[in-house]
Specification:
The complex is a heterotetramer. In chain B, helix 1 runs antiparallel to helix 10 (244-282), helix 2 (38-48) packs across helix 9 (228-239) and helix 3 (64-88) runs parallel beside helix 9 (228-239). Chain B has 10 helices and 6 strands, in the order ααβαβαβααβαβαβαα. By secondary structure, chain B is of the alpha/beta class. Chain C has a domain at 69-123. The longest helix of chain C is centred in the last third of the chain and has 40 residues, at 161-200. Chain C is mainly alpha-helical. In chain C, 52% of the residues are buried. Chain D has 2 domains: 7-31 and 218-255, no CATH class; 39-213, 3-Layer(aba) Sandwich (Rossmann fold). Helices cover 59% and strands 10% of the residues of chain D. The mean pLDDT of chain D is 91. Classes of the chains: A mainly alpha, B alpha/beta, C mainly alpha, D alpha/beta.
Chain lengths: 202, 283, 229, 258
């Protein structure tokens, strides 16, 4: 990156950032700051056009070059175009597609997590040290608090599980959260003085 | 699990056992008991406690992903809120800040459950309730909702400018709101913007987040919360608007038991084998 | 109750999509690949439509109605992002992304100080209150917070007192992680539990049975192949 | 001048700024602090090396959290690690695949990877399609990564940044495919899973520290010392708050009233 580029990047980072910080702590220019805060999502919505270009180029190239998996790339491009066009011209069909294809696919893809829970538990939690044992015990007790079955077995389970979750675990969380907040401050300062520019690619 | 099985087949066995376990309650009724916790009770009574003609701001920040867990509880909450609007003139402001899914889901609850169920009888859109739709910006919008609603929502879900909605004339910021509420997966963003406003704030939140919600929940930053699908089931029992959450509870219990078994059994076997080896060697 | 053809089709479609996706649990296969690319395409169509609709409703329509300098500016900065499509033109999009990052990070840092530092310290309870149990809990909670924060220091070597403190912190962090694993489960299980009714009721049963038969067939075939080789 | 209830916040922020700047300047003048090792960061060359041995690729993802949210710092730290891994890949001549989920991730990813390969000494290995776009939504994103991992079986799978639900799916698939996995996030919810599923994991705020460490400049190391000073301030505040409340004073609560 050239020197001018570097300065421009840092300035265009710092000016809006400092403006918001100033407004937050002084209570001045509140409504201007509120409008500024709404920008990022709008900008992200603009950036989706970059995605369209990359997406169609990537898949169409594979279809035209007839690479090994090309029929699947064709499925991707075709379903993209069909969904988008339906949204513009046939709202009721589009609604059907959203609730019966998009949502169903979303939930079934997400449900992998329920299965992988178990395999992760099975593979990763061998008691090698006392600390892992503690992790296990705390996990089991909290599970017995969460699931209705725990209370049915013994009314003590919810109390113990809730205590673990609230007191030792809740306290540790405070510590971790404070540490993370410090990391955020550190990264902000490093960005302000121009050390951290990964968000523009280095 | 037999050590003869390859790791891949061990995984497959776990998957099959799990699928069979959660399918079991759909095929025959198991009927494990469901005690109602004080959390759900206070959630119910906090909503009941809103003053007559009071204003409730409810942010539906669900995604299609959280919908499986919290959806049926959300429907019960909407029904409860609308019934309060009918009985006591409470006014409802619905919004979404996280992503577009929430606005779609919120609109579909009103379309598919509230209006056909007769919960909106005698109520008028724009006077008793308003749907602001998706206000992109998440945390920024959350801040906007309690500082200046008219700035953050220039129009409602249906494109009507906010100045033309009668009930929004005297609802501009948090001082006009009596109860804050949100449902979804996250809490930190809400706590940062809503914590310390001094208004009651209720949350219907994924059980996953509950461990995280604790710091916000202590000392009354969050007034009370529904603990995931289980909380929803309890709330459904309290309101009488039963749905999917209630029927999922048996499967949840069986799934949790399987998880506990998977945590304990291999470790117990391992320790027993180790103990056996040790006693053999000492002999 | 008589079902319409559309309802039957919907049941079959839903169950097939679920089985296609879940077949990945058995192994990566053609059906999953179809579902994967269908998901990528249809979701992208859905998201693109939603994003453009939001841009139109919340930025362009208000812009056309009233003169709002902030909306003009954000539109310009947003369009600058598209210059990246011209291979040699790099700098305008970098400016846009810097603005984007600057605003978000400022929101993050103010939130971190108020919510995550002050907000987490503020609720610390008294050690000498009325109730003995509460006092003990407050002490445990405070020790947990103190030691787990001390664990995350990088410049002092963990020796002497700090070694003990960070060791205690590590223990509390483990308890905390266990509790998170425990609370995670209900939300995670909800996904698959919510899908089961589509698979075991109505016409979904046929699809499930077909899926099971296919997997059995594949198991037998692959076993034969292994034996032969 | 200062909004009510924010006085202590301003004090904390200014003290933090001062601590950061002070230690960065001190480091520039030669007082470089010693930093304890972060195991996960040290292991990244091993992972890339394994990919080189096996002749496969390295997969990288920065997660579903966007730069437009208030979690932008987390994503930025993830980008910094991506730059570092790209450099390692350039050094070991290993192809990298970065699955992008937001439109703006594409230019960022391409720039980072290109710069990384250049400083790793093999700019000719860079190709534009190392960055694959999966379309702005969590589920296709995780589906694309899972499919890729199962089909191509990369030797190393890395996920650093603002990761969410999708990570559990992809790490689960990676475990079955036998990838070596490294991941890290400051997002608390997911850290237990990373610890359980990965060979190497960054927990707490280690990702932020790692993002500064990868540049190996004295002033960046000074920044880490600055962060430690801020943590000391926070520890002091904890003690102060507890002492005040135990003594029956509500001064701390009044100072922080919002």
């Amino acid at each position: 990156m050239s020197e001018i580029m570097r300065k421009a990047v840092v300035l265009s980072f710092a000016i809006p950032a400092l403006f918001i910080v100033f407004s937050y702590y002084t209570g001045a220019v509140k409504s201007e700051a509120a409008r500024l805060i709404a920008w990022p999502v709008t900008l992200a919505n603009f950036s989706i056009i970059l995605g369209v270009a990359t997406f169609t180029r990537y898949h169409l190239e594979r279809v035209t070059k007839r690479t090994e998996q090309w029929p699947f790339n064709l499925i991707a491009v075709a379903s993209f175009m069909i969904t988008f066009v339906l949204a513009l011209v046939a709202k009721s069909t589009y609604d059907y597609v959203v609730s019966n294809v998009v949502i169903v696919l979303q939930i079934s893809l997400m449900s992998f997590i329920s299965f992988y829970n178990f395999t992760l538990f099975y593979r990763a939690t061998r008691v090698r040290t006392a600390e892992v044992g503690l992790l296990l015990v705390s996990a089991i007790l909290v599970m017995l608090w969460m699931a209705p079955v725990g209370e049915a077995v013994s009314p003590a389970f919810p109390t113990i599980g809730k205590w673990i979750n609230d007191i030792p675990s809740g306290g540790a969380m405070r510590g971790i959260l404070i540490g993370i907040a410090v990391g955020i401050i550190g990264l902000f300062v490093r960005s302000l003085i121009g050390y951290e520019r990964s968000y523009v690619g280095g | 699990m037999s050590p003869k099985l390859s790791p891949l087949n061990q995984d497959r066995l776990i998957f099959i056992v799990y699928i069979l376990l959660i399918a079991l309650p759909s095929l025959l009724v198991v009927g494990l008991p469901l005690p109602v916790t004080s959390l759900a009770k206070s959630f119910h009574s906090t909503i009941e406690g809103v003053r007559d003609r009071g204003v409730v701001l409810w942010v539906t920040d669900q995604t299609f992903g959280t919908w499986v867990e919290l959806g049926s509880g959300e429907i019960a909450i909407y029904k409860h809120l609308f019934s309060l609007a009918q009985r006591r003139g409470i006014r409802l402001v619905f919004a979404t800040t996280y992503n577009a899914d929430g606005a779609v889901l919120s609109a579909s609850i009103v379309q598919d459950h509230i209006i056909p169920g007769g919960f909106a009888k005698g109520l008028k859109y724009g006077e008793n309730w308003v749907q602001l739709g998706w206000l992109p910006g998440w945390e920024a919008s959350l801040r906007g909702l309690v500082t200046d609603i008219h700035k953050v929502a220039r129009a409602d879900y249906f494109g009507t400018p906010i100045e033309k909605i009668p009930m929004m004339k005297d609802i501009t910021s948090v001082k006009d709101i009596d109860l804050l509420g949100h449902s979804g997966y996250y809490i930190d963003e809400y706590g940062r913007q809503w914590g310390g406003l001094g208004k009651p704030w209720v949350v219907s939140i994924s059980a996953t987040t509950v461990a995280m919600a604790k710091p916000w929940f202590e000392k009354g930053i969050v007034t009370t919360y529904l603990n995931g699908q289980r909380g929803c089931a309890e709330y459904e029992a309290l309101t009488g608007y039963r749905g999917l959450a209630t029927s999922a509870m048996d499967a949840q219990s069986l799934g949790h038991l399987l998880a506990i078994a998977i945590l304990i059994v291999p470790n117990a076997l391992y320790l027993a084998r180790k103990g056996l080896r040790r006693s053999n060697s000492t002999r | 109750m008589e079902m319409t053809e559309l309802e039957i089709f919907t049941q079959l479609l839903t169950a097939s999509l679920i089985i296609m996706v879940w077949s990945f649990l058995y192994r990566e296969n053609v059906f999953y690949r179809i579902a994967e690319h269908l998901a990528i395409g249809s979701f992208f169509g859905y998201i693109l439509y939603m994003s453009l609709k939001t841009l139109y409703d919340k930025t362009l329509v208000p812009l056309a109605a009233t003169w709002a300098p902030d909306l003009v500016l954000v539109t310009i900065i947003g369009i600058l992002m598209w210059t990246r499509l011209v291979p040699k033109l790099v700098w305008p999009s970098r400016i846009s992304i810097s603005v984007l990052a600057g605003i978000s990070m400022a929101v993050a840092v103010t939130g971190a100080v108020s919510g995550q530092i002050i907000g987490q310290i503020r609720p610390m309870g008294s050690w000498a209150g009325q109730d003995l149990m509460t006092n003990v809990n407050n002490i445990i909670s405070a020790v947990a917070a103190f030691t787990s924060l001390a664990f995350f220091t990088y410049t002092k070597e963990h020796k002497g007192v700090l070694r003990v403190v960070s060791r205690i912190g590590r223990t509390f962090i483990m308890v905390c992680f266990g509790a998170i694993l425990g609370t995670f489960l209900m939300g995670n299980l909800a996904f698959s539990i919510g899908q089961i009714p589509s698979l075991v009721t109505g016409y979904g049963v046929y699809v499930s049975v077909a899926g099971i038969i296919l997997i059995m067939a594949d198991l037998i075939l692959s076993k034969r192949k292994m034996e032969r080789s | 001048m200062i909004a009510s209830g924010r006085i202590l916040e301003v004090v904390v922020l200014l003290a933090s700024l001062a601590a950061m700047l002070f230690s960065i300047l001190a480091a520039k003048r030669g007082k470089v602090p010693r930093i304890r090792k972060i195991a996960c960061l040290e292991a990244l060359p091993e992972l890339v090396g394994r990919a080189a041995e096996m002749g496969t690729a390295v997969h990288f993802a920065t997660g579903m959290v966007g730069l437009e949210t208030a979690e932008a710092p987390i994503v930025t730290a993830g980008y910094a690690i991506l730059g570092h891994v790209a450099e390692l890949c350039g050094k070991y001549k290993v192809p990298i695949r970065y699955t992008a989920v937001f439109g703006y991730n594409i230019p960022i990813g391409r720039d980072l990877i290109k710069t990384g390969y250049t400083s790793g000494g093999h700019p000719e290995l860079y190709r534009d399609d190392m960055v694959v776009y999966a379309g702005d939504h969590q589920q296709p994103y995780s589906a694309a990564i899972m499919g890729y991992i199962m089909r191509e079986k990369p030797a190393a799978n890395m996920m650093f940044g603002g990761i969410k639900y999708e990570t559990m799916n992809t790490l689960g698939a990676g475990a079955i495919a036998g990838c070596m996995q490294a991941a890290g996030t400051p997002r608390l919810y997911y850290q237990p899973f990373l610890v359980a599923a990965c060979d190497y994991a960054m927990i707490g705020d280690e990702l932020f520290a790692a993002a500064a460490l990868v540049r190996r400049k004295p002033e960046e190391l000074g920044g880490i010392l600055g962060q430690d000073i801020i943590k000391m301030i926070a520890l002091g505040l904890i003690v102060l708050a507890i002492a005040l409340i135990t003594a029956g004073s509500d001064l701390f609560l009044r100072l922080t009233r919002i």
